[in-house]
Amino acid sequence: MIRRWTLQQVARGAFVLLILLCVIPLTVQRLREPPGPSIEIVSASGEVRKVTLSQMKAMSVLTRAGSYENQYGNWRDEGVYSGILLIDLVGNADYSSIDVVAGDGYRITVDPERIQNPDYPMVLAFCMDGADVPAWEDGFRLAILPEDGGVSNEEYGVASAGSYWVMRVVKLISNP
Prior knowledge:
This protein is an alpha+beta fold. It is built from five helices and eleven strands, in the order αββαββαββαββββαβ. The strands form two sheets. Strands 3, 4, 7, 8, 9 and 10 form a six-stranded mixed β-sheet that branches. A five-stranded mixed β-sheet has the order 2-1-11-5-6.
């Protein structure tokens, strides 16, 4: 018995075939494309998520001049930084502090008072002087960007304001 297809059945089959021929290559291409630079954010409950550079650029970005005083009294890394407020990255969840972890294992714990201080906004910078990560090799970087641009040891109340300017950040961990 020879099966005869109606015009409607042939049209549906051709449509499905066309969709498959278009969708499958696009899906494969997306799987091949690297996601771009990203950091990992761990919530106080242990939930892990990645935030990419392209996602950060879609958020509210703070751009300001910045530099810091190190433990020897020298001013370092003067430039114009662009980044996302740390409070925007970690969200409104309860946390007692945030651990900022660099790729080389350097780690600093930051109290909520510093993270939420509007006079000394703390950002995860993805750009310095117009160079984005990964071309900017020190980024992602924690930076403190007051309106006057400089963070001295005395005004920040620490032995080295530079210890907060963590380079090559790979992870933010919210502590319960």
